[in-house]
């Protein structure tokens, strides 16, 4: 090979080597660039996931009866809960997110309620609203949530109880995961006993109640607290009847009439309160009824108006047809919703306090919400309320009223298409219902 050819071949080799080097460096640079981009992409995906979670609705569940003989009671509370959540969403939601409601029909059954609870948990719910089905159902739910939260600390659940009145739920069975926004039976009976102290026409009392935990407690508290307020009163009889099964109260009314009672202390609610009043009317027997919350149930005012000789006195957190403009406006808005004939302020208060707790905790984590709710003082539509830290029982005013004919003075508005409404008898402040508690709160480990 000539000298010129060897020089050309050597130059060609150097160019090829240089080209290979440039190519390898380019590949390496590209590889490094790709490696550097991977964490950035992962970060972007993580940020997108966080943003999606932040924008996702806050799911809450309703578990109560929507079918069966007491379905209308559950439907009223469902309508009030929907109203309260919609109201919160209309004001911007909480933590930049809206509430989303998932409803379950428990058919007035504890077993069905537990099935619904598991479905709610599987759907990502962390807050359950319940209470209208009675204390056995709420007790079963609270006990199930206690077990679930202990086993699943990353998937905890809160119970917001707007209707079950059993003092044991904030007493011997109290739970860190349960909050009661309705006054319990002891608080309600205390308000009624204060009312009874001034009722000179009360002499003989008969106790007639549904045969379940709440009914038996109402009877026992009635005997105890009314006797304390009126030691001159005579208790002339007592009976329990099956829950949600009696269609005709004529036999029970016959026994009441034979006893000579002028007053019946009854915790009956829903259809069974209306049927009891109807039986008294048909018997031509004038009676006073002392009840915890049934005056606000559908059909009760109508039953009183038809009986004509019934006087039902009951307890709630406000006077349904009162003059307060804020409450009147809220009640009017609720009535415009499906099944929203009756306004239950305590449901709205439950949602408002839940939202306030989330904002305070800056989180929708149930544990942090629970701590934020404990001891919370809140200015509600019915006045100042306090969530007692010791047992998670809300202290709120209790208003005693009697269903009476419209007279233009004490009763200005009729309800249920009748000329009967609610007459204010007395108001007891929540602070005056701060009764002793036997709760021994067990808080989550590590807090």
UniProtKB/TrEMBL annotation:
Keyword annotations from UniProtKB, A to Z: Amino-acid transport, Signal, Transport
Family: Belongs to the leucine-binding protein family.
Gene Ontology biological-process annotations: amino acid transport
Entries under InterPro entries matching the protein: BCAA_transport (IPR051010), Leu-bd (IPR028081), Leu_Ile_Val-bd (IPR000709), Peripla_BP_I (IPR028082)
Pfam families reported for this sequence: Peripla_BP_6
Domain of life: Bacteria
Domain spans labelled Leucine-binding protein: 57-394
Record's protein name: Branched-chain amino acid ABC transporter, amino acid-binding protein
């Amino acid at each position: 090979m000539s000298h010129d050819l060897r020089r050309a071949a050597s130059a060609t080799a150097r160019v090829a080597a240089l080209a290979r080097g440039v190519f390898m460096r380019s590949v390496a640079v590209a590889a490094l660039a790709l490696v550097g981009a991977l964490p950035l992409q992962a970060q972007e995906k993580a940020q997108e996931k966080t943003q999606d979670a932040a924008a996702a609705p806050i799911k809450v569940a309703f578990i109560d009866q929507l079918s069966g003989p007491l379905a209308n009671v559950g439907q009223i509370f469902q309508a009030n809960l929907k109203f309260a959540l919609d109201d919160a969403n209309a004001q911007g939601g909480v933590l930049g997110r809206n509430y989303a409601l998932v409803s379950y029909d428990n058919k007035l059954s504890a077993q069905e309620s537990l099935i619904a609870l598991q479905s709610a948990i599987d759907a990502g719910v962390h807050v359950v609203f319940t209470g209208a089905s009675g204390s056995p159902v709420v007790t079963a739910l609270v006990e199930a949530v206690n077990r679930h939260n202990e086993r699943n600390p990353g998937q905890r659940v809160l119970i917001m109880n707007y209707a079950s009145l059993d003092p044991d739920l904030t007493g011997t069975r109290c739970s860190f995961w349960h909050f009661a926004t309705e006054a319990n039976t002891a608080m309600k009976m205390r308000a009624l006993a204060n009312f009874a102290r001034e009722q000179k026409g009360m002499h003989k009392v008969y106790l007639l109640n549904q045969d379940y935990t709440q009914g038996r407690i109402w009877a026992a508290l009635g005997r105890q607290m009314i006797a304390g307020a009126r030691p001159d009163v005579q208790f002339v009889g007592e009976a329990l009847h099956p829950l949600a099964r009696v269609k005709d109260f004529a036999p029970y009314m016959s026994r009441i009439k034979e006893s000579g009672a002028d007053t019946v202390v009854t915790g009956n609610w829903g259809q069974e309160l209306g049927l009891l009043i109807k039986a008294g009317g048909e018997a031509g027997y004038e009676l006073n009824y002392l009840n915890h919350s049934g005056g606000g149930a559908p059909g009760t005012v109508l039953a009183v108006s038809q009986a004509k000789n019934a006087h039902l006195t009951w307890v709630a957190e406000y006077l349904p047809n009162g003059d307060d403009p804020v409450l009147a406006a809220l009640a009017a808005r609720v009535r415009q919703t499906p099944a929203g004939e009756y306004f239950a302020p305590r449901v709205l208060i439950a949602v408002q306090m839940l939202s306030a707790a989330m904002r305070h905790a800056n989180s929708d984590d149930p544990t942090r919400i629970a701590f934020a709710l404990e001891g919370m003082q809140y200015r509600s539509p019915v006045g100042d309320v306090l969530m007692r830290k010791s047992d998670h029982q809300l202290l709120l005013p209790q208003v005693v009223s009697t269903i009476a004919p419209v007279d233009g003075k004490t009763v200005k508005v009729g309800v249920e298409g009748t000329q009967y409404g609610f007459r204010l008898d007395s108001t007891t402040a929540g602070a005056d219902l701060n009764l002793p508690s036997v709760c021994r709160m067990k808080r989550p480990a590590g807090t």
